Amino acid sequence: MAATADHLRFILGLKLKHERLDRGLSLKQVAEEAGLSISYLSEIEKGRKYPKTEKVLDLARALEVPFDDLISLRVGPTLDPLKQLFSSPLIQEFPFEMFGLEQQDVFGLITEEPQKAGALMQTFLEIGQMYNVTVEHFLFAALRSYQQLHNNYFEDLEAAAASFREARDWAGTPVSAQMLRQYLADTFDYQIDTEALAADPDLASFRSVYRPNGTPVLYVNGQLLPAQQAFVFAREIGFQVLGFENRPTTSSWIRAESFDQVLNNFKASYFAGALLIDQEAFVADVSDLLGADTWQPDRLDALVDQHQATPEMIFYRLTELLPARFDLEDIFFMRFYNEAHTDYTVMNKALNLSPVPIPHGLGMDEHHCRRWPGLQLLRDLRAYRANGRGTPPPGARAQRSHFMGQDMDYFVFSMARPLSLAPNTHSCVSIGLRIDATFKQTVRFWDDPALPDREVNLTCERCPLPPRACTERAAPPTLHHERDAQERKEAALDRLFAKARPAAS
Predict the structure, then answer these.
(1) pTM of the entire structure?
(2) Full set of structural domains in the chain with CATH
């Protein structure tokens, strides 16, 4: 990696602090010996300042360290993990400013005790390598934190989408893919190609690809549903209207190059959802849905049809507007998929604005609890197709879910369908809402007796239910048994030590 100015400041500060602490010297002692102010030396150690050569010579003499060793980029084994971390793409790209920090602030916190911090960072680096944690994982984790900080509602993006609709006299009406495609071509001189992606097996999984050089070309997969094509065009308009040049060129990520790129993609996608599903019209429709006396899955299907959207687009919009417009802030979203020929299910998207753990980020080989309504829909969809009865329309299912071992109940509803670009792959989306006082006042059908009440867990491996109590178990409760055995051992040790404790005199 090429040495940047930040990198040089960091390495020098790291070495100075290490050498000073190793000799048991205070900032004041070294500053006086080198003829510097205490505040200036502190800034150097924090990686904020890089002194002139003569000042580095003075510091080398004060610490009795060879000048060449001090300015070299080489560090000893104790500090090497810190050097690796702060010169890594992770630190270079992580958006510390989003959390009110600067890179130097983190550097200052970690280097209070460089040796201990070095051992800790080495541990993190090894964990990252062991579990193949990439920069992208951290960038997308930072994006989820950004969404959580704002309750996943962004008034400026809502306003931008509303203004765009009003300026085109589109307010209150469904916006079609053809309208958006024409706008891109007329306003931004886009060329639209709907054949190239589907014709190339290596590109057929992409929904869209953007070629920025010269005349902009947007390749759109012609196999997409009209609602999906509309979203692709609306997001492209979002990039242009919001002025984002740092953006991905493919619809699904190949490589995230920076947090700005990840954030810009999110904002353009949010804009697209707000443009296609008008906030006020949608809120009115959702109010009618939640105000019904009984759970009516057909109303959820009607919401999809009425707004010319996919279930995923509707559920995304719900995660944005339920917290902001209905005060239902304790919410989570999940998306699962599986292949038609297998029961193995993968979660590939989640947003958690609730305190409850949701089945995400767990062991690679664990099996998600089959009691979730979304996973039941996937099972039914797979069975439906296996019987040769064709592809059913999207279905919806809901239940009241109680998390085992926690005093929390959630109302969870889901929809599932085959994917348009991979018909043998099924996808389901789910939303969970905490059943609290606000929920009960807002959702009239919350206690509909026709809905099941089910205990759920994260994965089969963590579930304490015996086999007779769960016919849907996909794997034995190995992790639960391990935890239970650990607790028994700890209790036995307590009993043993209690017996050996001398009686009080």
Answers:
(1) 0.77
(2) 5-133 (1.10.260.40), 149-276 (1.10.10), 320-485 (no CATH)
